[in-house]
Amino acid sequence: MKKIILLIAATFLLSSNYVLAAGSASSDTESNYDKAVKVINFAKKNEKKGKKEKANSQYEKAQKLLLKSNKEKPGKADTLNYLGFTTRKLGDFENGEKYYLQGLAIDPKHKGINEYLGELYVATNRHNLAVERLEVLKGCNCEEYDQLKAVIAGEKSKY
C-alpha cells in the first residue's frame, strides 16, 4: 500500500512540475523582438503622457532586446526598423539612420522604415530626403503616409 501511495505522490509531483515548467516556458518562448515591441508600445504611451524619463528608460530596454534579436536573427527589416526607431528616440540620429538604411536595403518599400526615416530627415533638416520617403509611401493608402505627410507639413511633430 505504501508503494502505491508513493507512486501516486511521485506521479503527481512529476506531473505538477511538468505543468509548471510548461506554463513558464510559454513566456520564455516569446522572442526578444516581440518583447521589445511591447516595451516600445509602453514607451510611446509614456512619451505621450509627458513621462519622457520613463519612456527613455523603456526605449533603452527595447533597444537592448532588439540588439539581441538582431544577433539571433540578422537581416530582419522589422527589427532594423525598431532599432532605428529606438536609437532615434534616444537622440542618436546618426546610428538610427544607419539601422533604417540597412532595413531599406532588405525591404525598400517597408512602410514603417520609410515613415520613420522620413521623420528623422525632418528632424535633421533634410526636407528633400523626407519628401523622397513620402513618395515611396505614396499610393499605399496607409497611416504611415498620412503621418509622414503631416510631419513634413509641420502639422505635428513626433520625431
What labels would you give this structure?
Serine Threonine Protein Phosphatase 5, Tetratricopeptide repeat; mainly alpha; globular; 2 domains; 159 residues; 8 helices
Distance between the first and last residues' Cα: 72 Å
Low-confidence stretches: 9-26
* Number of domain modules: 2
User: So how many helices?
Assistant: 8
Radius of gyration: 22 Å
Q: Tell me the CATH architecture of the largest domain.
A: Alpha Horseshoe
Overall mean confidence score, pLDDT: 87
Report strand %. under 5%
Q: What sort of overall outline do the alpha carbons produce when their principal axes are compared?
A: globular
Q: What structural class is derived from the secondary structure elements?
A: mainly alpha
Largest sheet: none
The fourth-level CATH homologous superfamily of the largest domain is: Tetratricopeptide repeat domain
- Give the number of DSSP strands: 0
CATH class of the largest domain: Mainly Alpha
Q: Helix and strand string, N-terminal first?
A: HHHHHHHH
CATH structural fold name of the largest domain:
Serine Threonine Protein Phosphatase 5, Tetratricopeptide repeat
